């Protein structure tokens, strides 16, 4: 009976703003809508908006098939913003980031695995003479070390024997002179879960991998898990927001994403020049696979590859 | 997050009307809600993403009124408002109300108060919200966003803290001047008593300027006039009550007081309404209230009874303040006549 007091008496269309509204909010909104109708020809969700909405809401209310994967009641849910290391001029004001939800009981290594960064896929080396051998070892496999920095403690990834302690350099540097940073410690990432950490909300922390690829991490929210959230443990860390980066297209066909970049190329109109795989081979190699012209070619991974 | 335009005014208007209605019954709130057809606040053709964001901001705004330091009646109104907005929202699944951990004990205390004062309808509403799982229990009240704002929103504070630089006045207030004068009087009398001639202090004891209180007052007045001239130029564009009041009242000390009275009257949720409401819901507690009526029995009275005697109260209080001001100014006016030497 309480609800009856709230809802309207007759059938109303929520899309239509009533004419004689006494609410200031609605009057303003009506004006804005009218202005929109005049200026926008086709009022439809663009694909960016659809993507954003989908990512935000695709996991709400999901339940796992396996009941052991169900998240219990007192679980904490953290919202982290992981910033991209890419620095473009156009990102001066709003640095792009992705938003990840993690559970309090998840290990730091799980977060590490879920962060997808383009520098992980880079392939080092010049491959103009042997273009077919290019995608052999991506950097993710070669350089496995990484660390998180939270509140004065470096959490290093030590799961594989190749992983080195990247934070050692920093700790040695800070201890060498009295620089005012006390007590930087180094521990293993895989031993800790998020519940063990003491964190500040809104304070920038660091995730460093590949030796020099650094991401800022900011925690925006900590809250208890809710009935309407996704309760499938396997889906976490859950990505709910991602910045869309335009990919660079091949210079020739302007259709496919660039996979090669050439420098000092006598056959190309500009330096550096981007090509997709097909156009690259067609332009630079003859039918037998011999190299034509002088150039240096590197495999290229576009930052927008995760779109 | 940028605010929803117009929403704050609408909410404040509704809460203000609820406060005027002077009751905490849900029926009166529902009446006001229906009058304004508040459930339409989410209308307007918008797609799901925008609707989610809008609803989140709306609930966040309403939630602010639910916490202290707002008065009891406003908080109950905010609870009803949250209930209404939560149920009227068009998002599927529904957006939740964020409550920070630090606020939770206060809210529980609030609920206990509701039960103690037997406002069972408000307690029921709160329980309904809990059962409907309408709350997110968060660590911090505001969800952070990271976009550099093109213009920093300071509009909220402009209204409330209108006289920022009256520090001289806040230091040399009427009370201070009164005290100074009293002490000065005492001092003079002391000097008279211990000197040979009982009517007049010894020449050897005159170590201070006798009229320093007067000088101090003059200097303060001058400063205030200067400041007000400056403010007048600044505010010429906006026609507010203060400038009119300033022109009306001659003495600047008086106008300073009335400026304060206006600012107080405008901060209606926080100042005298707290005094008024405390008598109503805590009638079993003895609260000392200087300006509201004592002994008003409102707790068990039937819902919807309007207390019209409360309405002239703001005017009365303002009148009191003006009377007080006049006496003080008269009092301050005295040194000019009675100062010796």
Keywords for this entry:
heterodimer, A: 307 residues, alpha+beta, Structural Genomics Hypothetical 15.5 Kd Protein In mrcA-pckA Intergenic Region, Chain A, 2 domains, 8-stranded mixed β-sheet, 3-stranded antiparallel β-sheet, 20% strand, globular, B: 341 residues, mainly alpha, two-stranded parallel ribbon, 15 helices, 59% helix, elongated, disordered C terminus
List the helices and strands and how they pair.
The complex is a heterodimer of chains A (307) and B (341).
Chain A: H1 2-6, H2 24-39, H3 47-57, E1 76-83, E2 97-103, H4 108-114, H5 139-142, E3 146-150, E4 153-156, H6 167-176, E5 185-188, E6 204-209, E7 213-224, E8 238-241, E9 260-263, E10 273-275, H7 277-284, E11 296-299
Parallel strand pairs in A: 4-5
Antiparallel strand pairs in A: 1-2, 1-7, 2-8, 3-4, 3-6, 6-7, 9-10, 9-11
Chain B: H1 7-21, H2 26-36, H3 48-64, H4 72-88, E1 97-100, H5 104-116, H6 120-131, E2 135-138, H7 155-160, H8 167-171, H9 174-194, H10 212-235, H11 241-248, H12 252-266, H13 272-281, H14 312-333, H15 335-338
Parallel strand pairs in B: 1-2
Helix pairs in contact in B: 1-2, 1-4, 2-4, 3-4, 4-6, 11-12, 12-14
Question: How are strands sequenced across the largest beta sheet of chain A?
Answer: 5-4-3-6-7-1-2-8
Largest sheet of chain A: 8 strands, mixed
Radius of gyration of chain B: 26 Å
Q: Give the structural class of chain A.
A: alpha+beta
Q: What is the residue-averaged pLDDT of chain B? A: 66
The CATH architecture term of the largest domain in chain A is Roll
- In helices, the fraction of residues of chain A equals 10-25%
Supply Rg of chain A.
Answer: 26 Å
Number of helices of chain B: 15
Helix/strand order of chain B: HHHHEHHEHHHHHHHHH
Q: How much helix is in the residues of chain B?
A: 55-70%
- Stretches of chain A where pLDDT is under 50 for at least 5 consecutive residues are none
- Oligomer state equals heterodimer
Q: Number of helix segments of chain A? A: 7
Q: Span from first to last CA of chain A?
A: 49 Å
Unreliable residue runs of chain B: 148-165, 238-255, 271-341
GO molecular function (chain A): bent DNA binding; core promoter sequence-specific DNA binding; RNA polymerase II cis-regulatory region sequence-specific DNA binding; RNA polymerase III type 3 promoter sequence-specific DNA binding
Family (chain A): Belongs to the SNAPC3/SRD2 family.
Protein name (chain A): snRNA-activating protein complex subunit 3
Organism (chain A): Cnemophilus loriae
């Amino acid at each position: 009976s309480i609800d009856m007091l709230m809802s309207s008496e007759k059938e109303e269309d929520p899309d239509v703003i009533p004419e004689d509204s006494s609410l200031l909010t609605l009057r303003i909104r009506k004006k804005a809508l009218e202005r929109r109708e005049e200026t926008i020809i086709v009022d439809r969700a663009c694909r960016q908006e659809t993507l954003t909405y989908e990512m935000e809401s695709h996991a709400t209310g999901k339940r796992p098939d396996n009941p052991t994967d169900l998240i219990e009641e007192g679980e904490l849910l953290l919202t982290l913003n992981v910033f991209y290391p890419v620095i473009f001029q156009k990102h001066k004001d709003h640095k792009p980031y992705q938003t990840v939800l993690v559970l309090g009981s998840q290990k730091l290594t799980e977060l590490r695995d879920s962060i997808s960064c383009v520098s992980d896929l880079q392939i080092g080396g010049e491959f103009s003479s042997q273009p077919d051998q290019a995608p052999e070892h991506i950097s993710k496999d070669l350089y496995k070390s990484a660390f998180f920095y939270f509140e004065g403690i470096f959490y290093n990834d030590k799961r594989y024997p190749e992983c080195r302690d990247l934070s050692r350099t920093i700790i040695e540097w800070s201890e060498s002179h009295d620089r005012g940073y006390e007590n930087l410690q180094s521990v293993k990432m895989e031993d800790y879960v998020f519940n063990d950490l003491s964190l500040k909300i809104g304070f920038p922390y660091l995730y460093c991998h590949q030796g020099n690829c650094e991401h800022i991490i900011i925690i925006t929210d900590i809250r208890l898990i809710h009935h309407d959230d996704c309760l499938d443990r396997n889906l976490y860390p859950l990505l709910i927001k991602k910045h869309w980066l335009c990919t660079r297209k091949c210079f020739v066909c302007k259709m496919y994403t660039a996979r090669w970049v050439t420098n000092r190329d006598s056959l190309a109109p500009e330096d550096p020049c981007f090509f997709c795989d097909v156009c690259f081979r067609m332009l630079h190699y003859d039918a037998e696979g011999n190299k034509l012209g002088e150039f240096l070619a590197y495999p290229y991974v576009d930052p927008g590859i995760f779109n | 997050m940028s605010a929803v335009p117009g929403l704050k005014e609408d909410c404040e208007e509704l809460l203000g009307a609820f406060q005027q209605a002077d009751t905490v019954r849900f029926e009166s709130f529902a009446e006001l809600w229906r009058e304004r057809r508040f459930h339409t606040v989410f209308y307007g053709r918008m797609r799901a993403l925008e609707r989610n964001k809008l609803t989140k901001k709306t609930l966040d705004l309403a939630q602010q009124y639910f916490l202290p330091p707002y008065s009891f009646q406003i908080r109950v109104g905010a609870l009803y408002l949250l209930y209404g907005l939560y149920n009227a929202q068009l998002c599927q699944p529904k957006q939740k109300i964020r409550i920070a951990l630090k606020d939770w004990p206060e809210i529980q205390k609030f609920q206990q108060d509701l039960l103690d004062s037997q406002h069972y309808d408000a307690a029921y509403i709160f329980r309904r919200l809990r059962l409907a799982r309408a709350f997110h229990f968060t660590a911090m009240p505001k969800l952070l966003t990271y976009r550099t704002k093109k213009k920093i929103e300071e509009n909220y504070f402009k209204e409330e803290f209108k006289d920022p630089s009256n520090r001289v006045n806040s230091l040399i207030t009427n009370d201070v001047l009164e005290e100074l004068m009293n002490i000065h009087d005492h001092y003079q009398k002391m000097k008279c008593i211990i000197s040979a001639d009982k009517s007049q202090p010894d020449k050897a004891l005159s170590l201070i300027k006798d009229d320093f209180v007067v000088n101090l007052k003059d200097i303060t007045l001058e400063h205030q006039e200067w400041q007000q001239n400056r403010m007048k130029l600044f505010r010429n564009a906006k026609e507010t009550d203060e400038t009119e009041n300033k022109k009306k009242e001659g003495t600047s000390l008086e106008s300073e007081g009335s400026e304060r009275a206006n600012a107080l009257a405008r901060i209606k949720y926080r100042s005298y309404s707290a005094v008024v409401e405390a008598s109503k819901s805590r009638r079993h507690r003895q609260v000392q209230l200087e300006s509201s009526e004592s002994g008003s029995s409102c707790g068990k009275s039937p819902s919807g009874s309007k207390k019209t005697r409360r309405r002239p109260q703001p005017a009365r209080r303002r009148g009191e303040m003006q009377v007080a001001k006049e006496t003080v100014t008269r009092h301050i006016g005295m040194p000019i006549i009675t100062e010796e030497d």
